[in-house]
Amino acid sequence: MADHWDTVTIVGVGLIGGSAGLALTKRGAAKKIIGVGRSDSSLAIARELGAISEGTTNLREGVTDADLVLVATRVSVIGHQLEEIDAFVRPGTPITDAGSTKQSIVDSWEQRRSFRKGRFVGSHPLAGSHQRGPDAADPTLFEGKLTVLTPVEATPEKDTDTISAFWEILGAKTCLLSPPEHDRLLASASHAPHIVAAALAMATPSEAHRFAAGGWRDTTRIAAGDPALWADILLDNTQSITSQIQKFTEASDRLRHAIEEGDRSTLIELLTLAKESRDALGS
Fold this sequence. Notes:
Blueprint: E1 5-11, H1 15-26, E2 30-36, H2 40-49, E3 54-56, H3 59-63, E4 68-71, H4 75-88, E5 94-97, H5 103-110, E6 119-121, E7 123-125, E8 146-149, H6 157-169, E9 173-176, H7 179-203, H8 214-220, H9 227-235, H10 238-260, H11 264-279
Parallel strand pairs: 1-2, 1-4, 2-3, 4-5, 5-6, 8-9
Antiparallel strand pairs: 7-8
Helix pairs in contact: 4-5, 7-10, 10-11
C-alpha cells in the first residue's frame, strides 16, 4: 500500500481536485501532479497556485504514466471519463473519483470489470464549499473530514486499502458504504438539504433581503452552489432524494398545522425534536 506516488493525475482541478493537489504537495506525497482540464487558463491558475506541477487538456496524455488517478469532475461525466481513462492507463493503476453520487458511477464501471485495466474504487469526500474553481482550493479542505469509499463485493481489499490511504494522506478519515447505501444516506445528509436551502432562497421576496441576518444566510448558504453541478447530482439520485423531500414535506406540514391551529404544546414538541436532532451532531 503506497503512501506516496511518483505521478498523480487529477482530472478536474476545481475546488476538490485543486485542494487534493495542494494537499499532496503540502505533504510531499507526489513527485509530480498532472492536472487534466478543459481549459488552459484554469490549468494555468492551478499551476500558479501550486495545485499541479503540469497541466494538459489531453486526457490520454495526462493519465498514461499516472501511478494514481483522481477524477474530480461532474457526476454526469465521470462514468464516460472513467471509460476513457481505463483505456489509457497502465494495467493495475488505482483510480478513484470524488462524485457526490455513487450508484450509477460504480454500476457503469462494474459492468465491464473483467475487461478493466485500471483498479477503480468509488469515493466521496464529504468536504466542499459553495465556491468553485482552482482559486477556491484549500490544502486543509479534507483534514478531519470524512471520505466515503464504496467498494463492491468484487473489489479486491488491497484496492480499497490503496484508495483509503490516498485520502488519509490528504488528512481525511475514511469509511466504507455500499453504493446504494451511500446514495440513500447522502440524500438525507447532503442532497435534500440543498433542495431545502434552494426552496427557502426562492421563497424569500427580494424586499426581505436587506433584513436577512445570520439565520437566513446560514440556512441558504449552499443554495449559492453551482446550479448545473447540483442539477446533475439531484437527477442522478432521484429516488432517494424525492423520498427525502417527501419526509421533509411531511415534517413541514406538521409544523404548519400546529401553527395554524395555535397548538403551542405540539409546536414546542416538534421544535424540541428538531433541536435534539441538531444538538446530537455537535457544533
